[in-house]
Specification:
By secondary structure, the chain is α+β, with helices and mostly antiparallel strands. The protein folds into three domains: 3-70, Winged helix-like DNA-binding domain superfamily/Winged helix DNA-binding domain (Arc Repressor Mutant, subunit A, Orthogonal Bundle); 81-109; 110-274, Endonuclease, Chain A (2-Layer Sandwich), CATH 3.30.870.10. The chain has ten helices and eleven strands. β5, α7 (157-175) and β6 (179-184) form a beta-alpha-beta unit. It comes from Methanosarcina acetivorans. This is TrmB family transcriptional regulator.
């Protein structure tokens, strides 16, 4: 078994490394497991907690505590059953969402106001840059972004790899005088933005950033973007790999955007201010 296979069922690099290490051992203490799996000691308990939630690892009642891998056959059967139930629930919720969108659109008789875009399996060369440029070029005043907790570091390789592109795109919006408000769960976007801003020598532009860009930290299950209080962007999730998106739906409906803006403002009050400078 290798890490690539485990990644396909939702385990990140650290979780895969710890689990594969435990499969080779009867049981181990956390400190020794950290060394053997090459997972930092500061991360090992978080990783073990995640594996326990997956029911892939169990804690033995000893002092100090020892950890062992659950029998893979039974563990993966249970994991598959849970994933199946979660997928069915997600599909049900997705259908309800699209049904609600359809009902809202039927009210004003404008089904042409919904556009769906599907992503390639991998972005090549400047594809991601060009896509963001096309999405952002028509923004006139403000963009409000809510980033799902699944985009915390290590949970989505594709997102982590594209962070630099998103950071530069948001700063480009600020250069155009666009207000940028981001609710982030603590993803790699935060250090990426901070690093870019620290490298800027133009003090007047840094002051501009302070006026136009605000980021707050909040772990949330919500995931949407609002543009100019007119357009709502919703991700289309891969139901068999929730860390990956298949594409995006753009909804050109001010009443719909207003509802999401109300939710954004509610979440915004709960966020913790992140200092960009």
């Amino acid at each position: 078994m290798n890490e690539k296979l485990l990644a396909k069922i939702g385990l990140n690099k650290y979780e895969s490394s710890v689990y594969l290490t435990l499969l080779k051992q009867d049981s181990m203490e956390a400190s020794k497991l950290s060394h053997a799996s090459k997972v930092p000691i500061g991360k090992i308990y978080e990783v073990l907690k995640a594996l326990k939630n997956y029911e892939l690892v169990e804690i033995q009642p000893s002092r100090p505590q020892r950890y062992r891998a659950v029998d893979p056959k039974s563990a993966f059967k249970l994991m598959y059953k849970r994933k199946e139930e979660e997928t069915l629930n997600e599909l049900k919720m997705l259908k309800e969402t699209f049904d609600e969108i359809e009902r809202e659109l039927c009210k004003d008789n404008s089904p042409q106001n919904v556009e769906t875009v599907f992503w390639p399996d991998r972005f090549r060369n400047n594809e991601l840059n060009e896509m963001l440029d096309s999405f952002f070029e028509k923004i006139e005043h403000e963009i409000c972004v809510v980033i799902h907790i699944k985009y915390k570091p290590g949970r989505s390789e594709l997102y982590d790899a594209s962070i630099s592109t998103f950071s530069k795109a948001y700063l480009s919006l600020v250069q155009r005088g666009i207000k940028v408000k981001i609710l982030d769960p603590g993803s790699q976007l935060l250090p990426s933005l901070k690093e870019l801003i620290d490298s800027i020598e133009d003090l007047s532009f840094k002051h501009y950033i302070k006026d136009l860009m605000e980021v707050r930290i909040l772990e949330t299950e919500y995931n949407f973007t609002i543009i100019d209080s007119k357009i709502t962007l919703l991700d289309i999730e891969d139901q068999f790999n929730m860390s990956r998106n298949l594409g995006m739906t753009r909804i050109y409906d001010e009443s719909y955007a207003k509802r999401f803006r109300t939710k954004f403002d509610e979440l915004w009050t709960k966020g913790e201010l992140f200092s960009l400078t």
